[in-house]
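Quick one: structure tokens for this chain, please?
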Amino acid sequence: MADAAREYKSLALTNIKAQSSGRTRTGIAAVFGNVDAVGDRIVPGAFARTIDGGAKRARFLWNHSYQHPPVASIKELREVSRNELPDEVLEKAPEATGGLLVKRDYFDVDLSSWILQGIDAGDINEMSFAYDTIRSATVTEPVDGDPEKSREIRELQELKLYDCSDVLWGCNPATVAAGAKNFEALPLGVLAANLAFFESEFKAGRRNATRDQKLIDLIHNTAVGLGAVCNPDDEESGKSNTPEPGPDEINLTTPLSGLKLRTARLRVAQLQL
């Protein structure tokens, strides 16, 4: 079955030092065979269609930023066996059966050079990838061989790859839960500005409301949980007593209590990720 929204997964210690040369770096963007923190397991062959298509639309980005050009050019993208996985990956995922290798050349521009220096210094040591789930299946397996205990695992059988990215911290829930510093890395004002930008994308017809519905609901529920009050009457009439800030008017350091976020005042269907 095809899932509704674009997803992200990350992996630490992904770059293979022995295969570094000049501005070229090689790393493992995804691991097969292990069950991750959210109960997913990628199976070998999941990226086969992306690779068979020449991976022409896959990009290598910084922090999944779709508002900036790629920071590197992908030169090789292929699935590898367990024997080709670095020891650092096997230490974190001893049950891994293989992975997705990405070899890229970093452009000779300031941002790419900065990232490259961060990788070599060990300060940037995680990679993440963005994908759509085209085909998956839920399987039930015993826990630690105990038939009395079981868990459900979502097997990701076919994935459409959009990008691989160097990241400071991974995007999956397990990584975020590791420390509050991850929330500090995303100021509320930046989040508000991005939401306003995505809304403009929706109004311009560049977003797919059906595919993003789960994320729309999540944004709405989170905003309400934080105290946002939606006013259906104002929404229907298009009137409001308080003018809404545009993307360029939001102060990126404004505290939550001072922001009149569009997430609190527009219909959920108008907000897109």
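The longest strand covers residues 146-167.
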